[in-house]
Amino acid sequence: MKKVLVVGANGQIGKHLVTFIQESNQLEAKAMIRKKSQASFFKELGADVAVADLEGDIEDIKKAAEDVDSIVFTAGSGPHTGKDKTIMIDLDGAVKTIEAAKQAKVKRFIMVSSFDTTREAIQSAPESFAPYVAAKHYADEWLRDTNLDYTIVHPGLLTNHEGIGQVSLSGQSEPTEVPREDVAKVIKAALENDNTIGKSFKVVKGNQAVEDAIKTV
User: Fold this and answer.
1) What's the distance, CA 83 to chain centroid?
2) Strand intervals (E) in 53-102
3) How many Cα atoms within 13 Å fall on the side-chain side of residue 59?
4) Which residues of 186-199 are buried (b: 16+ CB within 10 A; e: fewer)?
5) Which of 10, 37, 49, 88 is the most exposed place for a label (fewest CB within 10 A)?
6) pTM beyond 0.85
7) What 3-state DSSP class applies to 127?
């Protein structure tokens, strides 16, 4: 069983992902959360729990990563926070987690990014959204410049609709909807398929089963 540290486990994608990992016969989850009060959901699933704050010391993140085989970064500042939180979570928190992975000698790293994090996307984004896209852009670039076995997942417009287990991983230019539950299924499948290493791909709702789609990346 390979252990996966889910950073941002208390988020909506994170909770789905920990649930799916715990149902797997190949993986087991370690949920990284910010507060001890968030632990009960994960303990009921039988998952390990680590308490560490992305705005805190990198040593806490490194400690959380010391006994795992892979890391998924699915934390985010959220749409209702200011630019300061965007920088501290989506950029600095991501970079600290990448550096903690390197220090803890964890090679496999999956980043949950934004749909389009190119320089062009930063320039064309609405003023209120541009800092988020910029943070994700530089976090993605930092990860690409490492020797980690990375995968970068670019989800479309996230919804809380029930997942259908069918997606499209095509490189379409405009985002369409995708349930958070299906994004979590894609992440789990990526963890189980080494062909996704060194790859970046977009995820939207589609008509191909997750397990089949991930093999075509």
Assistant:
1) 20
2) 70-73
3) 1
4) bbbbbbeeeebbee
5) 37
6) yes
7) coil
C-alpha 160/C-alpha 29 separation (Å) is 22
3-state secondary structure 168-215: ECCCCCCCCEEEHHHHHHHHHHHHCCHHHCCEEEEEEECCEEHHHHHC
Local structure of 126: helix, strand or coil: coil
Q: Cα 203 to the chain's mean position, in Å?
A: 13
How many residues are there in the chain? Answer: 217
Average pLDDT over residues 149-159: 97
Q: Retrieve residue 34's tokens.
A: 């910010």
Would you call 52 exposed, middle or buried from its count of C-beta atoms within 10 A (0-12, 13-18, 19+)? buried
Q: φ, ψ for residue 113 (rounded to 5)?
A: -105, -155
DSSP SS3 for 55: coil
Q: What is the mean pLDDT of residues 33-49?
A: 97
- The residue whose two tokens read 């979590």 is 184
Tokens describing residue 137: 């852009």
Angle at 110 between CA 54 and CA 38, to 5 degrees: 40
Q: To which H or E segment does residue 162 belong?
A: none
Catalytic residues: 132
